């Protein structure tokens, strides 16, 4: 079994820990994080299909993010530090990769390995349970995803000038 610690980016909350078989694929790891995030949360912080959730490795300069790091504290408050924005400018983990491959079989204690990125909760109105039309929801999800990526990339580009 392989243990992973992750943080939901852009939403308040703590560190989420899951364990999966090291031969499992990243898609299974993603589902494990979604289930764990929503397990005791009556509002279900992740309210979308699993394939709309992206996972990123929480490594800066090849080193896992320490769990006591100030950036982790910012993440748990719903903030997104600049170093984390840089990670999010990259590509998410491939759902078909093996869990062992992404971490080389090593997920040290007291570190965060995964950044979890889900679309905003506004896709479903949790207060009354009404869902928008499926086509409009998909359009909204795509628009949100593109807007977030564009904002992050623009901020990084301007910062690098």
From TrEMBL:
<dbReference type="GO" id="GO:0005576">
    <property type="term" value="C:extracellular region"/>
</dbReference>
<dbReference type="Pfam" id="PF20147">
    <property type="entry name" value="Crinkler"/>
</dbReference>
<protein>
    <submittedName>
        <fullName>Crinkler (CRN)</fullName>
    </submittedName>
</protein>
<dbReference type="GO" id="GO:0043657">
    <property type="term" value="C:host cell"/>
</dbReference>
<dbReference type="InterPro" id="IPR045379">
    <property type="entry name" value="Crinkler_N"/>
</dbReference>
<feature type="domain" description="Crinkler effector protein N-terminal">
    <location>
        <begin position="7"/>
        <end position="117"/>
    </location>
</feature>
<keyword id="KW-0964">Secreted</keyword>
